[in-house]
C-alpha cells in the first residue's frame, strides 16, 4: 500500500503542476511532505492571497481526476541543466547534487527534480482527502540572505473521514488557544511597547500563577528542598567560567555595561546556585543539598517562533539543583522522577511521553562522564519501569537528560519536566565536599525543572482545560449573586463565610441576575451562588455549578464542606 507520506509528497507535485498551469513563469523551489500534509515553495510574478487557494485546489482536483502518471527518469546532469534552464532554484540544487546522474519525476506537464518515491498515478489520491490551508513567506533554503518565496501549505490524509477528523480537532484546538482564552479570561497580555515575548500578568493570571507557586513551595519544602532567590543579571566572566558564553551564546542576549564591567541577563540559574554552594565548606554529611528557585531567565528566541505563553523571551523556571555524592545520585534521580510525575498528575495530566536525550555535538566534558551519566539515567528509568524513547544528541551541553512531555486532553504532547545530570559544572566551578576520610571530592549535580516554566505550563494548562481550570487553580472560585438590593447584606455574609478558604466575590453591580450568570459562565467561574428571599430566610444558597447548571439549594455549611473536598 502507498504510504501517506508518498501521497502527501505526490500532492506537492500536483500542487506545483497546478501552479505551473495557472501562473506561467513561476520559479519552483522545493516541495516536501511534512507532518499532516505537504508544502511547495514558489517564486511567483504576483502576490498570492488566500482567496486564490480554492481556485488552485480546484485545478489540483481536475489534474487528479484526469489520472496523470508519475514517471521516474534517470538523466545526466547536463540533460537536467537543459530541462531546468529557466528554473534558477532547480539549477542551484542540480549544482549541489553529487554524482553525474539525476532522478527526475514527470507528472503530466510538470517535471521535478526528485528522488521519489511517488504514487504511480494521481488516481491513487482521493479528491476529498486533502485541502490547501495557507500561504506563508519562506526564505529559499531557510536563509534570510536569500529571496523570500511563497509557500503554499496543504494537509492530506488517507481519506475524507480522516481529513474531517483532523479539521475538527484543529477547530477544537483553536477554541482552546490559550492566547485567545488568556485575553478573554483576562489572565495575561502582551504589549508592543513592552516587547515581543514578554508577558504581562493581569490580576487573575497572577493569582493563578501564585497558586501554582504556593503549591510548589509547600511541596518542595516538604521534600527537603531549600529555597533560594538570585539576581536576574550576572557578570560576563561568570558565564565564561560556566561555559555558557562558549556553548550557549546563541540563546543569550548581548552583554551590557555597568560601570566598567560587562554583564549578561541570565539564561539559567545554575551558576548562582553553585556560588551559594561554594560559599561554605561542605561535608558529605550536608549532602544531598536541594536548592530550589523560581528563577526568571531570559533566552533569545527568533520573533517568528514566539507563541503566546508557550514560547517567550523571559520566563520563570521552577528550577532546582541537587548537589550530591556520586553514591546518592541514583536515589536522588529516582525521587525526582517519582515526585515529578506525581506533581504533573496533581495538575490533571494522566499520560506522559518520556525521553532520554544523549550527548549533543556541542558538548563539554569527556565521553566517559557522558556515558556514566547516561547509564545512570537509563538505570533509573528501568528501575521505575517507565517506558521511554531515546532522543539521540538531544542532551544539553553539560550532560544527558530525561524529559517528560505531558499529553493534553486533545492528545497533544507538551514538554514540561527536564532532569539533567551534570558532570561538568562541578569541575568548572571547583565544587567540593569533604568525604568520610577527610578528603576533598567533587560532588555530582542534577539540574531539574518539573513544570518547566510557569509561563509555558500555564499556557498548556489553559489549553488542556479549555480555560475551565480545576477549582483549586481557578483565579475566581465562587461568585455570590444577590437577586435584589435587599439581598446584598446576606450575600456579603455568605462571602464572609467562604473567604477563609476560597477566592470569592459578591456581584452586586446593577445588572440582571441572568446577565451576571452569563458573565460568570464566560469567566468560567466554578460556582455561582444565587441568593434571594428564600435563601436568606433559610440560610442557604442556590448553586450553579460550572458545566452542570443549577444543582439546587443547599445550606452554606454543607456547600462549604462539599467544595473543600474538591480542593487538592
Ligand atoms: Zn517528489
Ligand atoms: Zn541548572
What is the rounded Rg? 30 Å
Q: Provide the list of bound ligands, each named once.
A: zinc ion
**Within the largest sheet, what's the order of strands?**
11-15-16-23-20-19-17-18
Strand content: 25-35%
The N- and C-terminal alpha carbons lie at a distance of 51 Å
What can be said about the biggest beta sheet?
A: 8 strands, mixed
Q: Helical amount among residues, as a percent range?
A: 25-40%
Mean pLDDT: 94
Summed up, what is this model?
The chain has 568 residues and is an alpha+beta fold. The protein is built from 18 helices and 28 strands.
Tell me what the structure shows.
With 568 residues, the chain is α+β, with helices and mostly antiparallel strands. An 8-stranded mixed beta sheet has the order 11-15-16-23-20-19-17-18. Helices cover 35% and strands 27% of the residues. It binds zinc ion (2 copies). One zinc ion binds next to helix 1.
Topology of helices and strands:
Layout: H1 4-22, E1 27-28, E2 33-34, E3 37-43, H2 53-66, E4 70-76, H3 77-83, H4 88-96, E5 101-107, E6 110-113, E7 130-139, E8 148-156, H5 160-176, H6 178-184, E9 188-189, E10 200-201, H7 203-222, E11 226-227, E12 233-235, H8 236-242, H9 244-247, E13 256-258, E14 261-265, H10 270-278, E15 289-298, E16 314-324, H11 329-346, E17 351-357, H12 367-383, E18 389-391, E19 401-407, E20 413-422, H13 425-428, E21 433-434, E22 440-441, E23 444-453, H14 454-464, E24 478-482, H15 488-499, E25 504-506, H16 513-522, E26 527-531, H17 533-538, E27 540-545, E28 549-555, H18 556-565
Parallel strand pairs: 11-15, 17-18, 24-25, 24-26
Antiparallel strand pairs: 1-3, 2-3, 3-8, 4-5, 5-6, 7-8, 9-10, 12-14, 13-14, 15-16, 16-23, 17-19, 19-20, 20-23, 21-22, 26-27, 27-28
Helix pairs in contact: 1-2, 6-14, 11-12
Residues 268-270, 321, 447 line the site of one zinc ion.
